[in-house]
Specification:
Length: 316
């Protein structure tokens, strides 16, 4: 049984390892091209590429899967099945039609909810308490194919995107191992998705990271959790970006007045008025510096009560 595995980030690595550990023949791995990372722009291979090379699996990295040459290269591998997990590109019909058993995808949500590229982050940002994994046959639409199996995974109150990625990546690998035998022997029962229940989780933008202080403290807390550890939520202070990496809704309703107004600042952290309740900022990152406890940052800045965060300059 010849399998081509497609994946890019760490989310996909456990699925690849499970396939190999179980003795499946992975003839090649397809991953996104290496990207420049960090301030020094160091060209860095994706985690799936590193995992594949460590196991002696050849790796392909086409810039555009829709390029006919890329599709022909996949077809030349003569796969029986293509398995994808967070690959990052939409597969054209030529690739979908290449394997005789089709293409399946390990998707990080309970479809048809949260179709798209950021299902894990947006589930947390939306305050969901349960998410999961869906394995589905791939179609030409965005995560629209028939579902083969699903597994629920609870979202803990203190989960971030980072911790939930880890939980779902392991759950995805486990569900893949449970599901593959039925796909290979032709007994898999695929169920169409209910289009009326479909929701979308598009890739995050800079605007998704900006804190809107008119929203509730709990909503902003979920936003911050959903952006950790990748991008981080941000506001403005003194005309510069101030990132927020950890926060919690304050137990009391101290403060009041304009959203974004500093209600208190001291050893316990920074308390900011929101549209509903007060948010306690625990870890922040001022422009040009490393992340630090808010109490440490406050030792070196003047932030009197009444200061308003959120404008492009202090007080706006």
């Amino acid at each position: 049984m010849r399998i081509v595995f497609m994946g890019t980030p760490g989310f996909a690595v456990p699925s690849l390892h499970k396939l190999l550990d179980a003795g499946y023949e992975v003839v090649a791995v397809v991953s996104q091209p290496d990207r420049s990372k960090g301030r020094k722009k160091v060209l860095t291979p994706p985690p799936v590429k590193e995992a594949a090379l460590a196991r002696g699996i050849p790796v392909l990295q086409p810039a555009r899967m829709r390029n006919p040459e890329a599709a022909a290269e996949i077809a030349a591998l003569e796969p029986d099945l293509i398995v994808t997990a967070a690959y990052g590109q939409i597969l054209p019909k030529a690739v979908l039609d290449a394997p005789r058993l089709g293409c399946i995808n390990v998707h990080g949500s309970l479809l048809p909810k949260y179709r798209g590229g950021a299902p894990i982050q947006r589930a947390i940002m939306d305050g969901e308490r349960v998410t999961g994994i869906t394995i589905l046959y791939m179609a030409e639409g965005l995560d629209t194919g028939d579902m083969i199996s699903r597994m629920e995974v609870p979202i803990a109150p203190d989960d971030t995107s980072g911790t939930l990625f880890e939980k779902l990546s392991e759950a995805g690998a486990e569900l893949l191992m449970r599901t593959l035998p039925s796909i290979l022997d032709g007994t898999a029962q695929a169920v169409p998705q209910n289009e009326e229940e479909a929701t979308y989780a598009p890739n995050l933008t800079r605007e998704d990271e900006r804190i809107d202080w008119t929203r509730s403290a709990e909503t902003i807390r979920n936003q911050v959790r959903g952006l950790v550890p990748f991008a981080g939520a941000f506001t403005y202070w003194n005309g510069e970006v101030l990132k927020v990496w950890a926060c919690r809704a304050a137990a009391d309703k101290r403060g009041g007045g304009e959203p974004g107004k500093v209600a208190a600042a001291g050893p316990d952290g920074l308390f900011v008025q929101t549209g509903d309740g007060v948010l306690q900022l625990l870890d922040v990152q001022p422009a040009g510096k490393k992340a630090m406890p808010a109490a440490e940052w406050l030792k070196g800045v003047r932030l009197p009560e009444g200061t308003v965060l959120g404008g492009t300059t202090d007080g706006e």
